[in-house]
Structure formats: structure tokens, C-alpha cells
Amino acid sequence: MDPDMAYDQTKNDAKERYIRFTTNGVVDFDKKFSRTFKYNASINYGMQIGYQQTYYDADVTAESYAITNGTNEVSYLPSSYLSRMWVEGNPLNTAVKVSNQFYFLTGKVNHSILTGLDWLMDANYGDGKTFTRPPRNTNGSAYRTRAFSDIPAMHQLGGYVQDHLSTDLGTNKLNIIAGLRYDLVQPFDSSYDLQSISSRINAAFRMENGLTIFN
Fold first, then answer.
1. Quick count: other Cβ atoms within 10 Å of Cβ 153?
2. How confident is the model at residue 153 (pLDDT cuts 50, 70, 90)?
3. CB neighbour list of residue 215: distance below 8 Å, 6 or more residues apart
4. Which residue among 4, 22, 134, 197 sits deepest, i.e. has the most Cβ atoms within 10 Å of its Cβ?
5. Three-class SS of residue 4?
6. H or E element, residue 15
7. Taking the alpha carbons of 1, 12, 57, 127 in that order, is the dihedral positive or negative?
């Protein structure tokens, strides 16, 4: 292309399409340890195609394609060149949540137990960025050809249990909510050890005159 026509050589184009599926429901088992079971699941799959074209001139910059840390011998980009880059992404996002609720009585204390699991997965199975010549490095970050599918999918798994206790104290009423949650990142990869345990407890004391004290 004629360098004098560089202002006509910049192009940007992008197209995206998505397929989404969502389902949820409630099942009443009416069993001792499973009164109400709820579920929610969703899948989102995308098809992304992008194209970028830019003409560069006047500067000379290094051209590096290394994907690991270290010192590498690299070549230099021409002072003037046309960069054409294609971007292909196929993101997949999945979310599943289930919960189970049941009740029982210990003495004068009512227990409402809620348990649940949730799983999130984020991945991209696209070919990533490919180009004839990479865009010019202007901020210290070089462009490299690497498929998005080379990056492992992110999995997050969580589970929780909660007890809502309620009882009458004379003409007053006491409510306590105590819960425990466990989260694990990348549960299917033994090289990761990212996990956490969190807890919470709340109490409310309602007196006969309607005044409620929270903690």
C-alpha cells in the first residue's frame, strides 16, 4: 500500500454472537432432611471475531514473541509497516447453584437449615490473536500470538450451611442466624491451593412492645 495513503489504512471491525441457556426450578421433596430443593443453571457461549489494521511509520521497535520470563534475542520491526491482526474468541461461562432447606425442632428452638453448593466456570476456546505483524509496542507490552484456549479455565467451587434459630422467650422472640461457607478456586488442579473459610452470625431480639435489637 502507498504510505501516503496511511490515513485510509486504519480499519477496525468486530462481530459478536452469543447463545444463552438458563433454567431454574423448585422441587418440594417434603422429606425430613430435604423439604425444598432449588436449582439454577446458566450457560453462556460467545462467538467473537475481530479485525484491526493500522499503518505504522517513523519509529523502530523490537519484535518479541516470548511467552516466558527471561532475556531473549529479538528482531526489529521495519520503520514503516502495515499491521493486520485477527482476534477470535469463544468464551464459555457456566454457573450452577443448588440449595436444600429443611426444618426441625430441638426443645423450644426451631431450626431452619439451608445448605447449598455453587460452581462457576469461565473459559475461552478461541484461537486468540494472530497477525501478519504485531501492533507497535508503545507501552512496554508486546503483542504475542497465543490461543485463548491455551489458558486454563477458571473454576470456582463453594459450599455453605446456615442455621436460622428462633425461639420464644416469654413474650419476646429471639432469632439467630449462623452460617459457614467454604470456597475453593481451581478444585480440579492440584497445583493450586486457593481456598477460604468464612463465617457469620447475626442475632435479633424482638420485645413484646415491638422494639427489635439487632447484633
1. 15
2. very high
3. 202, 203, 204
4. 134
5. helix
6. strand 11-31
7. negative
pLDDT at 1 over 70: no
Residue 117 — pLDDT band, cuts 50, 70, 90? Answer: very high
Average the pLDDT over each of 47-51, 62-66, 112-116, 117-121 and give the range with the smallest value: 62-66
Residue 194 pLDDT greater than 80, yes or no: yes
Q: How far apart (Å, rounded) are the C-alpha atoms in residues 108 and 165?
A: 10
Q: Are strands 34-56 and 11-31 parallel, antiparallel or unpaired?
A: antiparallel
Rounded to whole angstroms, what are the CA distances from 95 to 19, 44, 64, 82? 14, 9, 38, 42
Question: For residues 178, 186, 146 and 130, what is the CA-based torsion angle, rounded to 10 degrees?
Answer: -50
Determine the straight-line distance between the first and last CA of the chain, rounded to whole angstroms.
Answer: 72
Provide the sign of the torsion angle of the four alpha carbons 186, 187, 192, 197, taken in this order.
positive
Helix (H, G, I), strand (E, B) or coil at 8: helix
Which of these ranges, 36-40, 171-175, 178-182, has the smallest mean pLDDT? 171-175
Question: CA-to-CA distance for 46 and 124, rounded, in angstroms?
Answer: 9
Q: Residue ranges per domain, the chain?
A: 3-214
